[in-house]
Amino acid sequence: MKPTIIDVAERAKVSKATVSRVLNNNPQVKDEIRERVLRVIEELGYRPSAIARNLATNRSNVIGLILPDITNPYFPVIARGIEDAAHQLGYALFISNTDNDPKLEQEYIQKMVEQQVSGIVLISSTLDEETVHELTSLQMPIVLCDRLIVGKPFDAVLIDDYKAAYEAVSYFIGQGHQRIAHLAGPRNIQSAENRKTGYLDAMRSANLEPFVSVGTFSYESGMHQMGAVIDEYRPTALFASNDLLALGAMQEIHRRGLTIPGDIAVIGCDDIPFSKMSRPMLSTISIPVYQIGVTAVQLLEDQMKGVRVGMKSVIMEHKLIHRESCGGVDLL
Fold first, then answer.
1. Do domains 5-48 and 161-288+320-326 have the same CATH topology?
2. How many CB atoms lie within 10 A of CB 206?
3. For the sheet containing 119-122, what is the strand order?
4. What CATH fold (topology level) applies to the domain 161-288+320-326?
5. Where is the signal peptide (predicted)?
6. Residue ranges of the alpha helices (H) in the chain?
7. Which CATH superfamily is domain 5-48 in?
8. For residue range 148-173, what is the model confidence (pLDDT) as tens digits?
9. Do the beta carbons of residue 263 and residue 237 sit within 8 Å?
């Protein structure tokens, strides 16, 4: 028969409540009592029930992660960073994929609340007014990745998407390109909108006429959009809002018998593993994706332990990686 908390309390000559406080690292327990209880726990091989602990504390040892598209190679890397950091802190991870469906996202948020997760890391497909209102009313630790809600009490980890796009387009302008197209991501995704704004401002600052094609963050969308861009705009350079779009665009450029970067130079964003496998290798904005996940859990842990009150935004550093597709030489 497995030992119970009553067995531990009786042998350690303390109350059940004291054993519970020791298990939950309550600082009010005296060191001598804590050591005695822990010694008895070891002797008996007692393992506390996670279910019982959840009922007692109204929280679990589980962190929820909500992703918009698990098939995008960018997001599993974030998930790995979150999982590794959560495991190190003693938490399990509950992952939900929304397929960029706002209604499914709200459904998963509610399910995680019902499961009494300790906190949620959210990479939202959209942050509309209804979603923001629901998040604000939850009274639960929440950290946003790749998104930021100005004026709302949510921690966030992200890069400066506007600055990254501006730098990429400015590089092209510095190389003498004047017809620079942009493949943008969905209008309801904040990072895509910020990258588009960075592109537009860089073009306008150089008195160049912009050309934007809006689609989804997919390889297929990149192929489809690029055909229309070539027909309508005849660009000499392309900045794509993510690497999947860029790789799809490169496929269409090859299909048209054009060369990269000779006829059209290309820069993507995210630096997913496939960017080094393409021919030519894809130039891109490198993002510390894994570290974004780790940092998100660290911020969540601060909230869950009450270490910090108030919103904190962490802007991670990005880097423009010059590879073959833009005529660069770094090849990192």
1. no
2. 15
3. 92-97, 62-67, 119-122, 142-145, 155-159, 313-316
4. Rossmann fold (3.40.50)
5. none
6. 5-12, 16-23, 31-44, 50-57, 74-88, 102-114, 129-137, 161-174, 190-205, 219-233, 243-255, 289-305
7. lambda repressor-like DNA-binding domains (1.10.260.40)
8. 776 667 899 999 999 999 999 999 99
9. no
- Residue-wise pLDDT for 308-332, tens only, equals 666 788 999 999 999 999 986 554 5
CA contacts within 13 A on the Cβ side of 129: 0
- What is the sign, positive or negative, of the torsion defined by CA atoms of 320, 321, 322, 326? negative
Half-sphere exposure at residue 98, Cβ-oriented, CA atoms within 13 angstroms: 21
How many whole angstroms separate alpha carbon 158 and alpha carbon 191?
A: 9
Q: Are 162 and 198 in contact (CB under 8 A)?
A: yes
Instruction: Give the CATH class of 62-159+289-316.
Output: alpha beta
* 97 strand-pairing partners: 67
Spans of all domains in the chain? 5-48, 62-159+289-316, 161-288+320-326
What pLDDT, in 10s, does the model give residues 261-304? 999 999 999 999 999 999 999 999 999 999 999 999 999 999 88
Looking at the DSSP bridge assignments, the partners of residue 180 are 237
Torsion sign over Cα 110, 116, 122, 128: positive
